[in-house]
Design goal:
heterodimer, A: mainly beta, 11 strands, globular, B: mainly beta, seven-stranded mixed β-sheet
Chain lengths: 108, 113
């Protein structure tokens, strides 16, 4: 099993729709979790941290399920500007692991 | 507050040439990292540093050297560039290793012909 796995997509979603994707991780001792957004040919930018109790930032909601070892990202009322690649990141005691990303295309 | 700054933004090298990529951060972060990103490969860690004067190997260190003489700067050197080192290079920094997110620079696009 890979350390961090994401569905590469692409997810093609009409504008205004809700979209969700998951990221699974293999190390149960992982300690912190993040979602990053990466636009084509640009650097990854932090979208949000993921807390055990779940957290929301505007249209974005992140959840952590430690029992099943996955994190999720929900985007409501999607905008054209949400088109990007979304990377999950898992921090453990000895390494920071990036997923390869999920590509999201918002369709007008 | 500039965050993480990388120079240069673009560079073309011939095989066998050398160069140094500079990364500077103004957030007083202890940890700094160099990644490369290739299509379909995701981000791969080259080298990292846990503080001034320290460096450590990451996942793909061969062909690269690094130095962290000052806390705010992390240099990545290519001693003898090879076409396989054509990539986009990202520098990042973080406050700590386990709980803090990474802050990335804008990247350096390197082509080795």
């Amino acid at each position: 099993r890979k350390e961090v796995e994401q569905d590469p997509g692409p997810f093609n979603v009409p504008e205004g729709a809700t979209v969700a994707f998951n990221c699974t991780y293999s190390n149960s001792a992982s300690q912190s979790f993040f979602w990053y957004r990466q636009d084509c040919r640009k650097e990854p930018k932090l979208l949000m941290s993921v807390y055990s109790s779940g957290n929301e930032d505007g249209r974005f909601t992140a959840q952590l399920n430690r029992a099943s070892q996955y994190i999720s990202l929900l985007i409501r009322d999607s905008k054209l500007s949400d088109s990007a690649t979304y990377l999950c990141v898992v921090n453990g005691d000895d390494k920071i692991i990036f997923g390869k990303g999920t590509r999201l295309h918002i369709l007008p | 507050n500039a965050g993480v700054t990388q120079t240069p933004k673009f560079r073309v090298l011939k095989t066998g040439q050398s160069m140094t990529l500079l990364c500077a951060q103004d957030m007083n972060h202890e940890y700094m990292y160099w990644y490369r990103q290739d299509p379909g490969m995701g981000l791969r860690l080259i080298h990292y540093s846990v503080g001034e004067g320290t460096t450590a190997k990451g996942e793909v260190p061969d062909g690269y050297n690094v130095s962290r003489l000052k806390k705010q700067n992390f240099l990545l050197g290519l001693e003898s560039a090879a076409p396989s080192q054509t990539s986009v290079y990202f520098c990042a920094s973080s406050r700590d290793y386990r709980d803090s997110p990474l802050h990335f620079g804008n990247g350096t696009r390197l082509t080795v012909t």
